[in-house]
Amino acid sequence: MTEELIAWLREACRAYAVKPHAIFRKEPSEGVVWPIEAGDAEELAEKLQQRGHFVPLPKEPAALANVIEVSVVDHVLEKLQELPGAKGVRGSERGYPDLEILAPQFGGRPYAVEVKVAKRSKNGRQTHSRISLYTGNTFFKYPNLKWPSTLRAFGEYAGHISLIIIYTLDTATMARVKDPEVIVHESWRLASKQRSSTTREYLGAVMDLEDLRQGKGEFDTSDAFYKFWRNYNFKVGRAVAKQLEKMLSEPK
Question: What phi, psi does 212 have (nearest 5°)?
Fold first, then answer.
């Protein structure tokens, strides 16, 4: 049923448009007159901008990604309401996954959906930086343990899916986002053999956009992916080690 869910997510997000337009500033420019009258949303947005109510969304990639990720999860949750019996659960801000989906149309088992947002590079052929797929030294490495930041143990999911938004940064607009593109695949199909950070324990995706579109990562099978990354020598900090010890000592 994983492929059916992936197909549904692609269709549900095919016409996705970034809904956050700007940051609203309560205090307008001096000398404005109330009330505002507008015939539609476009006219209202134009008038609000002219009056100084709008501040552009952040252009820093991580900050802008957070805004878009929330918008995407909102969009998918709205679409799920069209499926009888379907349920979506939003994850925590720094937890896993971003969205959990359970629906009879997809076998009734839970699926983990991670939303990733990446800026296109200047050449337009790859991501500006490597997308992070998982944190390697906690819930991914120990799939039978329910970590505090997760909705359930990693191994309880029927599948793990990455929903990626690729965009071009447009500093001339309030929304900052131009030409958003949606890519959806099982996460392992997008994986590289490189970490996405030199300071954090993250598994990285391939960077070539065509490889991302085709789901052509560096692993031929999911078994090869999990074997490689679960045997990777990630650092385990004191806090993670203490949490792991606590969970292992708890009665089953």
Answer: -65, -45
